[in-house]
């Protein structure tokens, strides 16, 4: 596919005009659904805007790759991996970045940003790229900090990447992405998704895991 990206900088946030960013866009666009593609792009824009609000200096290219790859692991090729989808997504981003000879510290930042994007309360205290992938996800999916971004900026982003029926559609994508490996939802937010949408799902119980361990005391 030939990438014909929109570089008009919605809300004053340009997409990095680099070979790495263009190839990330092409790979993700060819791999995921339109739903996930639009969501991932919004995560970049909203994460960037929250970075501006928080006066954080960040590498736009690394933030872009983290945002674009963060949900890749929900796809069918990873349904039997036995690992959390966040790790599958992070590993794909790491392979992509290493293939482009990106420095290892930058690779680590992107991997961590993706792996922790569903772990609230931790990323905000880490490197800006890690914090802002999570901030973008939290904004687009959960509405956290909704009023931190002005109406005009929010409208500009959504005009470029619309979100029709997004709440139900993204919950469906989460369900389809993890229902084949329910054990990976133990102790994380995706257990709530399966509890709502997969009949017969039984979430892991941390207390029972401790009490039923082989330790006598």
TrEMBL record:
Signal peptide span:
none
What Pfam family does this protein match (any one)? Answer: HD
For this entry, the protein name equals HD domain-containing protein
- What organism does the UniProt record list as the source? Streptomyces niveus
Read off the InterPro entries from this record.
HD/PDEase_dom, HD_domain
UniProt domain HD: residue ranges: 37-123
Q: Which CDD domains match?
A: HDc
**PANTHER family listed in its UniProt record:** CYANAMIDE HYDRATASE DDI2-RELATED
